[in-house]
Write a structure and sequence with these properties.
By secondary structure, the chain is α/β, with parallel strands linked by helices. It has a single domain, classed as Glycerol-3-phosphate (1)-acyltransferase, CATH 3.40.1130.10. It contains six helices and seven strands; from the N terminus they run βαβαβαβαβαββα. A seven-stranded mixed beta sheet has the order 1-7-6-2-5-3-4, sandwiched between helices.
């Protein structure tokens, strides 16, 4: 695809399992960048409609990734309880807490599921930031641009309760927003 890939501080990923990895979500290329970064024994949480994407959807589901139907609150809660069980079995989970793609227009507000689940499972949150490549990448060129992945230090959830999920999400959001701005200054496209 002509994209260059640079990953920073990925040793943090291996040292903090199981955990909940959270990242920003610009477009479908994030999946490639995430897969290049994330350690073994990591599954992701994706919307249930992914299963209908030809070939990829079936592969995604059969690979042990977890599907969530956000339109049905009862089914969504059941999916998040599955995530908690997966974390307790020494497997990490990658969640994009924006819930949808932002297309390079800045972080969207975070949904709280990832943070509540990390608290329930007693595992840290490890933020992963991608530079805003969606605005500058041109896949019609041989040199399409660069994707930079910056892994941040884990945020511990020990001693937190579900009532702390919103503050935890806000802290993570602020750290990620600041880091993405720095990456964009360093790699303007």
């Amino acid at each position: 695809m002509g994209l260059k890939y640079l990953a920073r501080d990925t040793q943090i990923l291996e040292a903090n399992q199981p955990c909940v990895f959270v990242s920003n979500h610009q477009n479908n290329i994030d999946i490639i960048a995430g897969c290049l970064s994330l350690p073994r024994k990591t599954v992701s949480l994706g919307k249930s409609s992914i299963v209908f994407v030809p070939i990829f959807g079936l592969f995604y589901w059969l690979s042990g990734n977890i599907l969530i139907n956000r339109m049905d609150k009862k089914k969504a809660k059941k999916s998040m309880s599955i995530v908690t069980k997966v974390l307790q079995k020494d497997t990490s989970v990658w969640i994009m807490p924006e819930g949808t793609r932002n297309f390079g227009k800045g972080l969207l507000s975070f949904k709280l599921g990832a943070f509540r689940t990390a608290i329930d499972a007693g595992v840290p949150i490890v933020p992963i930031c991608f530079n805003t490549y969606a605005k500058t990448a041109n896949l019609n060129k041989l040199n399409s641009g660069i994707i930079v992945t910056q892994v941040l230090e884990p945020i511990q959830t020990t001693g937190l309760s579900k009532s702390d999920a919103s503050a935890l999400a806000n802290k993570c959001f602020a750290l990620m927003e600041e880091t993405i701005a720095k990456l964009d200054d360093e790699f303007p496209g």
